[in-house]
């Protein structure tokens, strides 16, 4: 016996619900940039309240004191000069680390010996803190920028290589067979099959490598700056700490935070929007 189901939903009512405008607060909440701005505002307010309550600028200056020191040193050109020094060294080490990681993971994806080489090197060198290599780097490369680039190369290479290698290993056998059936050479196989399929892991490795590079650079510049009398943001922080200019120390830390937010918004999020989200590999 056939049963007929009759719905009482009015099509006009359904169209009216679909056309109903979304409330303003809901639209604002759906904007990720505004949500991130709200988090920053809340954290800034908490910092200001705590600094005012503590009333000890040698421990925690208020946000207003820190911003005053930041604006002063920005206007005098001190912070921009330190940022340029740090960014030049950072980008050099970061790019070199990515290139070395790309070569190692490419070899690992196309040969068994390359795979064993990468797995052995990451097991040996990845647990080794990059800053622990700075004394050796100073002996090998002297007090120049080469020492900083060397430790940055170490800090970036292994995290990018591990994430990329993990992404390559997660690529389905179906896609691998497609590449082999088309007779692609090793370089084309990696670039056209493995890289697009493993791009979420690759991008994650690039973001983590960028964060590791910043940590290593600032820590290394504390030692390098103390040894050579010059340096970037790390030396700026160290120098102001010795002079008990704690507001300037926080201004240096705030500069690192600002750069991180800018790079994340203008570089990594744009890459995510144009690749992962456009390809349906990541939710908005």
Say which CATH homologous superfamily of the domain at 78-274 is assigned. Answer: MetI-like
CA-based gyration radius: 25 Å
Secondary-structure element sequence? HHHHHHHHHHHHH
Shape: flat
| Number of beta-strand segments | 0
The computed structural class is: mainly alpha
Profile the largest sheet. none
Mean pLDDT: 81
What does it look like?
- It is a single chain.
- The longest helix has 33 residues.
- The protein has a domain of 197 residues: MetI-like fold (Orthogonal Bundle), CATH 1.10.3720.10.
- It is flat, with a radius of gyration of 25 Å.
- It has 284 residues and is mostly helical.
- 78% of the residues lie in helices and 0% in strands.
Characteristic key phrases:
mainly alpha; MetI-like fold; 284 residues
Would you kindly provide a brief summary of this structure?
This protein is mainly α and 284 residues long. The chain has a domain at 78-274: MetI-like fold (Orthogonal Bundle), CATH 1.10.3720.10.
SSE topology sketch:
Layout: H1 11-19, H2 24-29, H3 32-54, H4 63-76, H5 78-110, H6 112-125, H7 134-141, H8 145-169, H9 173-181, H10 186-197, H11 199-228, H12 233-242, H13 246-274
Helix pairs in contact: 4-13, 5-6, 5-8, 5-11, 5-12, 6-8, 7-8, 8-11, 9-10, 11-12, 11-13, 12-13
